[in-house]
Amino acid sequence: MTPPQRRRRHPEPSPEQPPTPPQQERQDPPEGPKKNPERLYVITGPDGAERSELDLVTLIVAHVDPPPSATPEQAALLRLCTAPLSVAELSAYLSLPFSVVTVLLTELLTAELVTARAPVIRQALADRSLLEAVMHGLQRL
After folding, report:
1. List of residues 6+ apart from 102 with CB closer than 8 A
2. SS3 breakdown of the chain: % helix, strand, coil, rounded to 5?
3. Which residue of 16, 43, 106, 111 has the smallest Cβ count within 10 Å?
4. d(CA 128, CA 133)
5. What is the pLDDT of residue 139?
6. Whole-prediction pTM value?
7. What pairs with residue 86 in β-bridges?
């Protein structure tokens, strides 16, 4: 038994056949605004200050409305964070890389406009006494 042969996507024309005109390649719609490195540098600023220790699942909560001096990206972060959101969610909503969002959040954290808190980690197994109390409560209904 012979293994299957791979086919080329664009086969080369054989010498006997005239070359065929190239087909128009299908262009997929863009997945969102593409950010070039210069734009990201302008957003984050040239200072290169140390970033806060933020994880993808760190929850961010805003305390105040965006001040007039906030950049558009910082104002968008503050508006999104009225309810706790993770850094990964903020990065996805703003279509910005995680590293850029952490720089923006570090500036907001130092200005005390937002707070960062670790997510609530649940135990792998529920407490047996709690499950029994729930079961007895449901049986009484």
Report:
1. 51, 52, 54, 87
2. 35, 5, 55
3. 16
4. 9
5. 93
6. 0.56
7. 59
